[in-house]
Amino acid sequence: MSDSSEVPLRELNQQTSRVMARVQAGETVTITKDGVPIGDIVPRGLPLGRPAYPFRTDPMGPLDLPDLGGPELTDDEIDATLRGMGSADV
Asked: Looking at the DSSP assignment, which residues form a beta bridge with residue 6?
């Protein structure tokens, strides 16, 4: 038995028990839709590949902000301006 195989989404829908039995036996199954991989089902306890985060986790480094010619504001002035934004009493 191969360690990894592709299964179309339709087959997963129609034969879920059989596909899951293969996973239980140690096989990693890649689910495809229209021939394009969309996800993997891996046996519990196996180390996963690269984790998928819903947000960036890599450092972006220093920001290079352009000078737009506006006034120089302190952090307190910026906080005071933003604090009033979105309030109902505008």
From this structure: 30
Are 8 and 33 contacting, i.e. CB atoms less than 8 angstroms apart? yes
Per-residue pLDDT of the chain (90 residues; tens, 9 = 90+): 446 789 999 999 999 999 999 999 989 999 999 999 999 998 887 666 655 656 666 666 676 778 888 888 888 988 888 887 876 654
Cβ count near 29 (within 10 Å): 20
Cα gap 53→59, rounded to integer Å: 14
CB atoms near residue 66 (< 10 Å)? 5
* Of residues 35, 36, 19, the one with CA closest to residue 27: 19
d(CA 18, CA 76): 62
Query: What H or E segment, with its residue span, contains residue 39?
Result: strand 36-41
4, two tokens: 């990894």
